[in-house]
Amino acid sequence: MKFRILLFFALLQNLNTFAQPATEVYLLDIKRDGNSFSIATNANLVNISNNEGYDNQPSFIEKLNAVAYVSSRNKKPTDVFLYDLATAKTQQFTNNSQAEYSPKITPDGEFISVVKDVDQNLTRISFDGLVTEKLYTSKDSIGYYCWLNQSEIAAFTLSKPKVTLKSIHIKNKTEKYLTDSIGRSLYQYRNGIVICQKLKKANYVSSIDKKGAINQLIELPKNTEDFYLTSDGLLFSSNESSLVYCNLQSKTKTWNELANLAAMGISKIFRLAVNQDKTKLVFVSEGR
């Protein structure tokens, strides 16, 4: 029975990949002036995926000076691709029969972790692609995740009847339920986890501690559940064609516009990420 449920979710993800509109991953240079962000002078919007199919879930792999993202090409399940920031060239990182999702750098900085296979297990892959190691298979299928430390992740899991947030200890193989009704954005911040809390009236950026206590930080712009949080509390999100940001350490938390990209042909911004130096931002939008 469990295998059938996991197979259903895996097939559903693959069908959704092929059914949704073509998406692209874009790269943009940004600049910081005190507490303000804007587009860098003479910055160009670069389509780094440049693919007719599905491209999504970008993240910066600082050690490789690259952006990792998943891409479905030639009607195949998603593989991981790497865009080299120095050479502006893309190379395929994985080439498997099973779909892979959510590439991220591991806490030790030596691997790229992904969610893969029918049972949506957490797997890590060495930078040279020679070592692939399954780290954990959840009791429920892992949809999205973030690393809390070397041994723990916070995971958005496909449970019944709702998706749930769990803290999972990989080595001890233990799972703890924290809450439900969450979005796909998950980040470790200070001593807790920052999530998208989905309520009937709105979506919120909220923090949750290990006991499950939730504190709402700021309401997200309408119709989005996507945001990116830096280690020093800078929050980036979107409002249709606009990129917006907020400082969680400010006493008065408000959204400020970084740029409106409508003139560049962008109508709706989805998943996004910012590099450590806060000079580059990647995001997903429907193909132009």
Salient structural properties:
mainly beta; Neuraminidase; 52% strand; 5-stranded antiparallel β-sheet; disordered N terminus; 4-stranded antiparallel β-sheet; 288 residues; 6% helix
Domains, number? 1
Order of helices and strands: HEEEEEEEEEEEEEEEEEEEEEEEEE
Shape: globular
Work out the radius of gyration: 18 Å
CATH topology: the name is Neuraminidase
Name of the CATH first level: Mainly Beta
- The CATH superfamily turns out to be TolB, C-terminal domain
Describe the structure.
Strand 20 (227-229) and strand 21 (234-239) form a beta hairpin. This protein has one domain: Neuraminidase. The protein is globular. It starts with a helix and ends with a strand. It has one helix and 25 strands. It has one helix spanning 2-19; strands spanning 23-33, 36-39, 46-47, 55-61, 66-71, 79-84, 89-92, 100-105, 111-116, 121-126, 132-136, 141-147, 152-158, 163-169, 174-180, 182-189, 192-198, 203-208, 214-219, 227-229, 234-239, 242-247, 256-260, 269-274, 280-286. The strands form six sheets. Strands 1, 2, 3, 24 and 25 form a five-stranded antiparallel β-sheet that branches. The protein has a four-stranded antiparallel β-sheet with strand order 4-5-6-7, with no helix packed on it. The chain has 288 residues and is mainly beta. Residues 1-18 have low confidence and may be disordered.
